[in-house]
Design a protein that fits this description.
Elements: E1 2-8, E2 17-25, H1 27-45, H2 49-52, H3 59-62, H4 65-71, H5 82-98, H6 108-131, E3 135-146, H7 155-168, E4 178-182, H8 186-202, H9 204-209, E5 218-220, H10 226-241, H11 256-265, E6 268-272, E7 279-283, E8 285-290, H12 294-298
Parallel strand pairs: 1-4, 3-8, 4-5
Antiparallel strand pairs: 1-2, 2-3, 6-7
Helix pairs in contact: 1-5, 1-6, 4-6, 5-6, 6-11, 10-11
Amino acid sequence: MLLFVDESGQDLGEMPCEVIAGVAIPERNLWNLVKAIRSAERDCFGGYLRELRRSEPKAKFLLKRKRFRLASQRITIPEAEWPALAYAALRKGAVARDEAKSESGVTARELTGYSRAVLKFVHQVLDLAAAHDAKVFASIVDASAARVDRDLLRKDFVYLFERYFYYLETLPSEERGLVVFDELEKAKAHKLVQRMARYFLGTETGRFRSSRIVPEPFFVHSDLTTGVFLADLTAYILGWGWRSGRMEHTARRELKEYADKLHDMQFHGEKPRDDSDGFWPLHGIAYLDDLRGSRDRTGEA
């Protein structure tokens, strides 16, 4: 099992929360899912976004507010024409960037067709992920959450791995979970690897969970990895469009349909209670308004 992980909102900028999102995909389904998404990409845009945009397709560009505003313009365009218009808009934009032109010459009709193709494509990507048994995991952290500056694996990562572990526990005993991160700068990647090692090798709970999760992560180029692209979409959509009862920030309503699909794809399970009397319910998406552990909250060393 492969868990593709990406982050969003860690710069504490415009997004009202931080998100660590993971999409778990069975190895047997991965290549078929990649092929299906690439086919949808070609059908929607007349080519591949990585080649036409000449840059990595990121959720913050695909699903920005302007995209929905352009898609909703009162311009009648048959859906069959969207791919050609999208292709023209992407090519003109790429040429303008290459030649450092201030104007690309993209028409309003092309922009509208492209925007509608983007929104259709994202819907198809999420539907394809669900059809290939992908499971969604995420830790959503309020931007104002109390936190501690300790050289340990952060609570939101621990929560993510906890749910991944209990998902793996529902699978055959020989199934192991690999973790695949979007490439980080070397210093950050080194720190993350160290903290994961301290958790999985240095704590009783971590050692227990390392029986199913391989503690040493892989780092990949996101522009070459469809799984990380899925995790990027998931992090962005949940950060802006998913809300639980305790979350105070207003969601972007235009993202609700996408967030609902991810909500339906999340893992649901249970874990034993500490007192061995029954089970706690677990859900793949967790909201945290405090990143401190119990010792930090009570003031213990």
